[in-house]
Amino acid sequence: MLETVSALFLRADGRVLLGLRASWKRAWADHWDAIGGRVEAGEELEAALIRECREEVGLTPLTYRLMLSAEERFPERNGAALHHIYVASAWDGGEAQNLSDEHVRIGWFSLDEMAALPNLTVPDLIAVVREYAAA
């Protein structure tokens, strides 16, 4: 089964970095999502997380925690996959930059702003950040 990793970068002010997935993407096109992508064959989850974050936004997670592993909710539409979602609270690399064609744009959102997005991939992203912040 395909596995993915993604990071919800969480700033001290409570804002979360999201990327607007490109229209050409097979799964969740034109939706706001965490930063990440596919785990390559033989690759450890954490290595994939660091690689994907560097490739997509130029940030290297330093402090992060796996918060949720869940199967794709719509496999008939997006393909079967197991998604691993991390929260990153410290990173290296300065300001996030949109470095790939995976996202049309990136931005920092409060949880209320995330909840108001009509095209957020899954509400679990908000719940994950809330759970992390409450711990």
TrEMBL record:
The keyword Hydrolase applies. The keyword Lipid biosynthesis does not apply. Coiled coil: none annotated. Gene3D superfamilies: Nucleoside Triphosphate Pyrophosphohydrolase (3.90.79.10). It is an enzyme of class 3 (hydrolase). It comes from the Bacteria. GO terms for molecular function: hydrolase activity. Residues 1-133 form the Nudix hydrolase domain. Keywords: Hydrolase. Its cofactor is Mg(2+). It holds the Pfam family NUDIX. Its EC number is 3.6.-.-. PANTHER family: GDP-MANNOSE MANNOSYL HYDROLASE, MUTT_NUDIX FAMILY PROTEIN. This is NUDIX hydrolase. It comes from Bosea vestrisii. The lineage of its organism: Bacteria, Pseudomonadati, Pseudomonadota, Alphaproteobacteria, Hyphomicrobiales.
